[in-house]
Specification:
The chain has about 375 residues and is of the alpha+beta class. It is about 50% helix and about 10% strand.
Length: about 375
């Protein structure tokens, strides 16, 4: 009996490119024919590795495919059922060789399906107000306030800025521009809080190694690398993604070519003294980056002993103080001195991916 070969998968195409082709070649013609003159915006701005630009062939196994958010005006919200029906009935079975329908599993994940119209298409019809409220708890009828900035994880801000708009009658780009980066004094506050996290554990790489706790020294060195990487995102004014893509996004920063090899040596070091030496180099590089910003007076980038103990540290508290002194806004100056944003003191994926949970942590910012 002759063995059957599996059908060839289409050549991989980046999800944003596939979704844009889906809009232009499939969705837009239906809108023009059935809803002529409908003011709308369309794009991929929500969650997904494709929105971040890090998708590859493996990404195709779930939550990947021709998808987009279709934004209509509040006054046209009543048209949503008709738009959804028209798309369900008229969308082609495929776009660029990929099915336009999905099967939705019990866990909510979506997988491309070749079942034709019986599957669910990947168009979400929404409004600007609904999308931003649901995705980042933001009231777009007013400019973002401090509490907004402090509770939105950078992963979500990054997807909004790194996603792609295919059409924009409604002015979503202006909101994206507004969310591109933090207000100046808040940025200083976040950097001060991040340097404080470095400062808290500076001497522990040497201290744990000195008592023979090699594993503890390695773990703390790894934590310091992560904290320094987060600082680099802040210094280069880039929203960091969640941890799966953290290293990939770091590799795109301009400082990566200098720092990545140093971080590799930190993590590969076999003794605490060697680990401390490489960390000292990393501290100096990030310290130079801080000085290059010109937001504070220059701070010495060298390392020296921690009190009378033989552990070399960069004394990051000096940068914390310098940044705090540079903050002018009374509102920012009144924030908890070292807390930072929610993502700097909450490390739970379940919390950071659930907008309904963010509000419960904002009481820390209340007077």
């Amino acid at each position: 009996m002759e063995a059957r070969s599996k059908p060839m998968a289409p050549d991989f195409i980046k999800g944003l490119e596939l979704s844009e082709a889906f809009y232009r070649e499939a969705v837009r013609p239906i809108l023009d024919a059935d809803f002529p003159g409908l003011a709308h915006s369309a794009g991929r701005l929500g969650g997904g590795s494709d929105v971040l630009g890090f998708d590859d062939e493996t990404s195709r196994d779930h939550d990947w495919g021709p998808r987009l958010e279709l934004f209509v005006e509040d006054s046209d919200w009543a048209l949503r059922p008709a738009v959804m029906d028209a798309l369900s009935e008229q969308l082609p079975a495929e776009i660029l060789g990929y099915p336009t329908r999905f099967t939705v599993h019990d866990d909510g994940s979506m997988v491309l399906s070749a079942d034709g119209p019986s599957g669910r298409h990947g168009v979400t019809v929404t409004t600007i107000a609904r999308f931003f409220q649901d995705y980042v708890t933001l009231d777009v009828s007013r400019p973002p306030v401090l509490r907004d900035w402090l509770r939105i994880p950078p992963q979500r801000l990054r997807t909004i800025s790194s996603g792609r708009l295919f059409h924009d009658d409604l002015g979503i780009q202006s909101i994206r521009d507004q969310l591109a980066w933090y207000p100046h004094d808040l940025w200083l506050y976040l950097m001060a809080s991040q340097w404080r996290r470095v400062d808290q554990e500076e001497p522990f790489v040497g201290r744990t190694g000195d008592i023979g706790d090699a594993l503890g020294s390695r773990l703390i060195a790894g934590r310091q690398v992560v904290e320094l990487m987060r600082l680099c995102f802040l210094i280069e004014r880039q929203h960091a993604p969640y941890f799966k893509w953290f290293g990939s996004a770091f590799a795109q920063l301009s400082c990566s070519s200098r720092l990545a090899p140093v971080f590799d040596r930190v993590l590969d070091a076999q003794s605490w003294q060697e680990r401390e030496q490489h960390l000292s180099e990393a501290y100096a590089i990030v310290g130079e980056m801080h000085n290059d910003l010109g937001v504070t007076s220059p701070v010495d980038t060298g390392v020296s002993r921690f009190h009378d103990r033989p552990y070399l540290v960069p004394h990051s508290g000096r940068r914390v103080e310098a940044l705090q002194q540079a903050i002018v806004s009374p509102e920012v100056r009144s924030l908890p001195a070292h807390a930072g944003a929610i993502w700097q003191f909450v490390d739970s994926t379940d919390i950071l991916s659930d907008p309904s949970a963010w509000e419960s942590f904002t009481s820390i910012y209340d007077d």
